[in-house]
Amino acid sequence: MYRFIVMCFLLSGSYLFSSNSHAAAPTCHTTSTGSPYCQYTGKVNKIYINSGGLILLYFDSPLNLADAEAVGYSPTSATATVYPLSENPDFAKLFYSTALAAQASGRSVTIQMRGTQHGYLKFDRIWLNE
Questions:
Q1: Are the CB atoms for 53 and 82 separated by under 8 Å?
Q2: Most CB atoms closer than 10 Å: which of 12, 49, 51, 123?
């Protein structure tokens, strides 16, 4: 009986702390002044920079493309957001380091995106959550 109770406890604990839990998908909104934006709050699933100078951050849960289209954006990718390093190198480096810190510490981020580039929503700000 003792083994059964311990096994149940371990299984329930692994379920509660499983990495399979997903964050909310990115959502899109229009501000009171009519400016559209999309927002993601969740874990940094994957982040990288390619040789073309694009930073890509992948969402934990995909964007519903229809939500982006409803506010006037037309991304073709639902899984990531982008920023070109050449546009503002200082911001890009700070964004990348903040996202890496979130990933390394297991903390979530909030990212806002305005516009599209290369088929992705284009991020322009980040918060590192507690």
A1: no
A2: 123
39, amino acid identity? Q
Q: Is the dihedral of CA 66, 68, 71, 72 positive or negative?
A: negative
Above 60 in pLDDT, residue 11? no
DSSP state of 54: E
> What's the pLDDT tens digit per position in 34-84?
999 999 999 998 999 999 999 999 998 999 999 999 999 999 999 999 999
Question: Residue 22 corresponds to which tokens in the numbers above?
Answer: 């997903």
Dihedral sign, Cα of residue 59, residue 61, residue 62, residue 63: negative
Residue 13 counted as domain residue: no
Q: Is residue 18 part of a domain?
A: no
Range of the domain at 45: 23-128
Task: Find all residues with CB under 8 Å of 7, minimum gap 6, and list them.
Answer: none
